[in-house]
Design brief:
heterodimer, A: Formate dehydrogenase/DMSO reductase fold, two-stranded antiparallel ribbon, 11 helices, B: mainly alpha
Chain lengths: ~325, ~525
């Protein structure tokens, strides 16, 4: 196995980590308007991810930074090419982060309501846009001989990629509902479970169409295997959710996300960004990679740091393992 | 093409706006993390309530600030790819490594342990809780280190070769990149500067509360128990702030001097520009200020100190320092083109350099005066000593107190200079980045060759407008929130956790809401979003 193939794998792992973790953060953000009945319930939901959302988001920065270090051309083409969607994602992540931190810092109704709108929209949009972005990466976009993106923003808005966006949005919201069922107590927990069933069924229909489309378009045997894992895990997650086995349901919705993202990466390999203009101009794991020396250094860093990060982040989840109900939300006046 | 709309100009403006803005929050993030950690350590070790209140208070201001630092930092990670794709392709092999290390090592530390710290007051044993903020503090410093290593490589590329087939920079020695003198001096200089910023901020806020308390007493209000507690917490904070400012100020001056010498050697043009030194001089004077047009090749009125620039560059008062003209000529011969292509914006470099030093050092001097005048017991006649919960008198000598007028202004200067170092740091960055022009990587790549060829002017304008508006709104929101919490002062009703939380539930319970738990299972969280 070449080092750059190994790094392709590592980048995939970082994105899987990101979508697994921030997936339910986005889902919780969307559910603040879909599931919560009032402000107190919204706060219950927000506080289930309160201590962890920031750490989850760093998986994105790591994926971005690692792409820059290991595949400079991939990083350059992707982020200069998908300029406007990325801009929108960045704006959302900025506003959303500030919204979590500042929402309860003033008692005024308007202040809190505005930040709550921000949390909803700035969770919904990135959840959708990441799917659009990955749909386009797998599908291929116009790339010239100098590795630069030659299309416009309209080229990114094709049915396949848009369907990908809808799938990630619904899948993340499902993942969020399962997470909410696992982390909350009382009435909201029951409703979260019920909503998860609906969202899970919707995900199943949409994801099946998208994954089969992907498989037909660019698939191979390995991506087919990943697709089967994703579908089985999703069905199992639905079943566990029905049975009230919330821990299992969450683990399985996580496996669904991991397998679906893995499928996209497997369908992509050995390309990293196929060119729809001329296959010879595609960016591949080989021609977009850094030198073996840089990859070797980065391998050491990643192999040491990633398990360590996973360990202490897991510990964080253990510290905050207690369920949250409306009774745990302090009065706003105490701040 | 209209120069004002050249892609390079737009991309540079955008980078300047987003980066300077991001760095307004970085200094307080780095320094307040450590100061809060120090105060919490004091609380854990002594159990004194004033340290608990101080920890909570500065921690709250720290969190309001870091929220902005974190979210604006996300843009930094991606805008190299967005606006500077040719740069990213050219340097990625070298530059990407420290950036990825920053994310994997530093950002994860910061972001994970900050969550534990914010929400962990009633969940974690005191000592572990305190360790969390220390890890955050270490994370912020590590983050600064890696990004400064990357920036230093742009100032002085090292540990690389140019690949013959691709024409791109290729890393050959990561150790050189991480430990070259540019990296180490820039790191030391930046970190100490951030601590002046934190120190001055703490001094300013503490001055505000102490001065108000003093005025209330002068108006005849006897301080109640709460007031005395507040004074206690603020007085300790004031001393911490002053000590930090003075030590960091010394460190900044020393590291600045070293960095200057490194720069004279590695980027002579930047330093000649910093001095608007047009002609080579032997010995070279240090220009205190210049009137007229420093940009036009001559200065009409100038106040300068003979020989000092030679000293700054070479540690003696006689050596020759090359001027702008000679340096530009040398660069043109080496890299091709006309000499004027190699002259950065002298006005910005000259004044940026002066403002950095002037504004930053004002806080240092203020700190020094404050440290002396607010000293306790020793060196004070007994009748002038003040207790831990009293506003300190400003003492010039053993028994001479400052006059009312100077006392008033001393407290006010403490407040007014609160944000000076942050401004100084911003000017420092503007100076060092603009002084490197026309290069983006010194001697290897020019800024105009670094922009994204595929990104249209419309897209860059869109993103620039969006970021500027968004950042403007957030600045107002953040500033007003900060002012609100600064004015409110520490929450003195808040009590430290009565018993030290234990990490494991007695039952070893799994925290499932169904299980019978101890009686405080339904207790509200001490902190919630």
């Amino acid at each position: 196995m070449h080092l750059h193939d190994f790094w392709f794998l590592l980048i995939a792992v970082l994105w899987i980590g990101y979508f697994f973790l921030e997936g339910f953060d986005f889902g919780i953000g969307v559910l603040t308007k879909v599931l919560a009945k009032d402000r107190k319930e919204r706060r219950v939901l927000i506080n289930t991810i309160g201590p962890v959302w920031d750490g989850n988001e760093v998986w994105l920065l790591s994926a971005g930074g690692a792409t820059f270090a290991a595949f400079p051309d991939w990083y350059a083409t992707l982020f200069s090419g998908f300029y406007l969607p990325l801009l929108l994602i960045l704006v959302c992540l900025i506003v959303r982060g500030v919204a979590f931190e500042y929402r309860q810092k003033r008692p005024e109704e308007r202040w809190q309501r505005n930040w709550e709108h921000a949390i909803f929209w700035c969770s919904l949009l990135p959840a959708f846009l990441w799917g659009v972005a990955f749909g386009n990466i797998v599908r291929g976009v116009p790339i010239g001989p100098d590795k630069n993106y030659t299309g416009t923003v309209l080229d990114l808005l094709n049915p396949y990629a848009l369907l990908g966006g809808v799938v990630t949005l619904v899948l993340f919201t499902f993942h969020g509902a399962v997470f909410a069922a696992l982390k909350t107590a009382g009435d909201i927990r029951i409703r979260a479970r019920r909503l998860a069933t609906v969202l899970g069924l919707a995900t199943a229909v949409l994801a099946l169409v998208f994954l089969i489309w992907t498989q037909v378009h660019t698939g191979n045997v390995r991506s087919l295997a990943a697709m089967i894992v994703a579908v089985v895990a999703l069905v199992a997650a639905l079943g566990m959710n029905r049975l009230g086995r919330e821990g299992w349901a969450f683990a399985l919705s996580g496996v669904t996300i991991a397998a679906a993202v893995a499928m996209l990466f497997l369908a992509l390999f050995p390309n990293v960004m196929p060119s729809s203009t001329n296959p010879e101009w595609s960016l591949t794991a080989a021609n977009a990679a850094s030198s073996p020396y840089t990859l070797k250094i980065m391998t050491w860093v990643a192999v040491i740091m990633t398990p360590l990060v996973m360990a202490y982040q897991a510990w964080t989840y253990w510290v905050f393992r207690k369920r949250i109900g409306t009774q745990h939300i302090p009065d706003p006046a105490t701040h | 093409m209209n120069l004002a709309l050249a892609p390079e100009t737009l991309a540079r403006w955008q980078f300047g706006i987003t980066t300077v803005y991001h760095f307004l929050f970085v200094p307080l993030t780095i320094s307040l993390a450590a100061i809060t950690a120090g105060l919490e350590t004091a609380w854990v070790r002594t159990g004194k309530e004033k340290y608990f209140h101080a920890t909570k208070f500065w921690g709250k201001l720290f969190l309001i600030n870091i929220a902005m630092g974190v979210v604006t930092g996300i843009v930094q990670e991606f805008q190299f790819g967005m606006n500077w794709s040719d740069y990213s392709r050219f340097v990625g092999d070298v530059f990407g490594a420290p950036l990825a290390m920053e994310a994997l090592i530093a950002f994860f530390f910061e972001s994970t342990f900050i969550g534990l710290w914010i929400f962990g007051w009633d969940k974690l044993p005191k000592k572990i809780h305190c360790a969390c903020i220390w890890i955050v503090a270490i994370g912020t410093v590590l983050s600064a280190y890696f990004i400064l290593a990357a920036n230093s490589w742009m100032q002085h590329p090292t540990g690389y070769t140019i690949d013959k087939s691709t024409g791109k920079a290729q890393l050959t020695d990561i150790w050189r990149v991480l430990t070259q003198n540019t990296t180490l001096t820039q790191f030391f200089h930046t970190i100490t500067a951030t601590f002046i910023a934190g120190g001055a901020f703490v001094v300013g806020v503490a001055s505000y509360h102490l001065w108000k308390a003093k005025r209330r007493q002068a108006a005849g209000q006897a301080p109640g128990e709460k007031e005395r507690k507040k004074i206690g917490a603020m007085r300790s904070s004031l001393r911490v702030g002053l000590v930090v400012t003075v030590i960091a100020g010394l460190g900044t001056a020393i590291s600045g001097d070293t960095l200057g010498k490194v720069m004279f050697e590695q980027q002579p043009m930047k330093m000649a520009a910093a001095e608007a030194l047009w002609e080579t001089k032997e010995p070279a004077p240090f220009s205190v200020f210049a009137v007229g047009n420093v940009n036009k090749g001559h200065n009409t009125v100038e106040l300068s100190i003979p020989g000092v620039l030679s000293f700054l560059a070479h540690d003696n008062f006689a050596d020759s320092v090359p001027g702008i003209h000679d340096t530009a000529k040398a660069e043109a011969e080496k890299y091709g083109g006309e000499p004027e292509d190699y002259i950065p914006n002298i006005f910005v470099a000259f004044w940026g350099f002066r403002l950095m030093i002037g504004v930053g050092m004002t806080s240092f001097v203020a700190g020094l005066i404050g440290l002396w005048t607010t000293r306790k017991k020793r060196w004070l006649a007994p009748e002038f000593r003040t207790g831990d919960e009293e506003v300190p008198r400003l003492m010039l000598t053993k028994r001479t107190e400052m006059s009312t007028f100077f006392t008033k202004w001393s407290w006010r200067i403490g407040m007014l200079t609160m944000l000076f170092p942050i401004v100084g740091i911003a000017f420092g960055w503007i100076f060092t980045e603009m002084g490197r022009q026309p290069w983006v990587v010194y001697g290897l790549m020019k800024t105009k060759d670094a922009v994204s060829p595929g990104v249209g002017t419309g897209e860059v304008i869109t993103s620039m407008v969006v970021f500027t508006l968004l950042y403007g709104i957030l600045a107002v929101v953040e500033a007003r929130l900060l002012v609100k919490y600064v004015k409110a002062g520490p929450d003195l009703d808040e009590k430290p956790p009565a018993k030290d939380p234990r990490l494991r539930l007695p039952s070893g319970g799994d925290g499932d809401g169904d299980a019978a738990e101890s009686e405080d299972a339904d207790k509200p969280m001490t902190f919630a979003y």
